[in-house]
Design a protein that fits this description.
The complex is a heterodimer.
Chain A: E1 3-7, E2 10-12, E3 18-25, E4 34-39, E5 45-51, E6 58-60, E7 68-73, E8 78-83, E9 92-99, E10 106-109, E11 113-117
Parallel strand pairs in A: 2-11
Antiparallel strand pairs in A: 1-3, 3-8, 4-5, 4-9, 5-6, 7-8, 9-10, 9-11
Chain B: E1 4-7, E2 10-13, E3 19-25, E4 33-38, E5 45-49, E6 53-54, E7 62-67, E8 70-75, E9 85-90, E10 97-98, E11 102-106
Parallel strand pairs in B: 2-11
Antiparallel strand pairs in B: 1-3, 3-8, 4-5, 4-9, 5-6, 7-8, 9-10, 9-11
The chains are: A mainly beta, B mainly beta.
């Protein structure tokens, strides 16, 4: 069965960096794009980034472009989100999710990992 | 960026009621529209994609309609397990954007 498992969340200070990861299993990893979506405490969903199935393209939300980098490692079936210059407003649960075939939705989601940016 | 606006923000309903949630895009997204259900402390779950296609395993009481800028999610007969928050999301262009959510509460 399709599984996405996030890891790497934690408490960090403003201005520092953190890397969160998403381990994928149960499907042909190289055939699907992977998204990151975040949710601040008590708030709605915010799309963050996507990496293409082959790693050839990435897109970012305006709020993170230039600070966050999404990448994938096909040898380990993982997708990472490197987050630099973190701000208090980046505090959220970060979910990874699989892109639907055809790219019109996100069909499988992980359980999320909490990132807290606080001094 | 395409802005997605849902209405209402919350709705109180009883088991067996018909519930309708609308989603409006700031510009046309064709049929590139998905709906998700999220329960507290859980990841979102895909319900509808391509505006009206039911995801495998989702009960048929859920349906979606619309194209262009105006979309609707309908729950034909609300069940206890349907009390949750619902989000629309456009997939026409990047950045992908979600609506602000509609909370379906028990009346």
């Amino acid at each position: 069965q399709v599984q996405l498992v996030e890891s790497g969340g934690g408490v960090v200070q403003p201005g520092t960096s953190l890397k969160v990861s998403c381990a994928a299993s149960g499907f042909t990893f190289n055939s699907y794009g992977i998204h990151w979506v975040r949710q601040a405490p008590g708030k709605g969903l915010e799309w963050v980034a996507i990496v293409w199935h082959d790693g050839s393209n990435q897109y970012y939300a305006d709020s993170v472009r230039g600070r966050f980098t999404i990448s994938r490692d096909s040898s380990r079936n993982t997708v990472s989100l490197q987050m630099n210059s973190l701000r208090a407003e980046d505090t959220a649960v970060y979910y990874c999710a699989r892109d639907c075939t055809g790219g019109s939705c996100l069909d499988y989601w992980g359980q999320g990992t909490l990132v807290t940016v606080s001094s | 960026d395409i802005q997605m606006t849902q209405s209402p923000s919350s709705v109180s309903a009883s088991v067996g009621d018909r519930v309708t949630i609308t989603c409006r895009a700031s510009q046309g997204v064709s049929s590139w529209l998905a709906w998700y259900q999220q329960k507290p402390g859980k990841a979102p779950k895909l319900l509808i994609y391509d505006a009206s296609s039911l995801q495998t395993g989702v009960p048929s009481r859920f349906s979606g309609s619309g194209s262009g800028t105006d979309f609707t999610l309908t729950i034909s007969s609300l069940q206890p397990e349907d009390f949750a928050t619902y989000y629309c999301q456009q997939a026409n262009s990047f950045p992908r954007t979600f609506g602000q959510g509609t909370k379906v509460e028990i009346k």
